[in-house]
Write a structure and sequence with these properties.
This protein is an all-alpha fold and 81 residues long. The chain has 3 helices and no strands. The radius of gyration is 13 Å and the shape is elongated.
Length: 81
């Protein structure tokens, strides 16, 4: 959960989106056949969450990085999975 008054990071948004997609899909990791749809859902929910927070006037970090995909192999992304 994001603390009031603190900006949500792109990593936090992506992690929350991934958790949501896992919860509603019932899959911790999608099959190869469903990978693209799974990743697209994570990305779209991350973006929607970012738009929501911006529209609510939530604090924003000055530098906004691109929201990583569910299969991003960076060390930071692997920790979020």
């Amino acid at each position: 959960m994001r603390k009031p008054g603190e900006a949500a990071t792109t990593e936090e948004l992506s992690s929350a989106a991934l958790q949501f997609v896992r919860k509603i899909s019932g899959f911790h990791k999608p099959s190869r056949a469903n990978q693209e749809a799974f990743e697209r859902a994570v990305h779209e929910i991350s973006e929607a969450s970012d738009r929501l927070l911006k529209s609510l006037g939530a604090p924003q970090h000055e530098a906004t990085a691109a929201i990583p995909s569910a299969t991003d192999s960076s060390p930071t992304r692997r920790q979020a999975l």
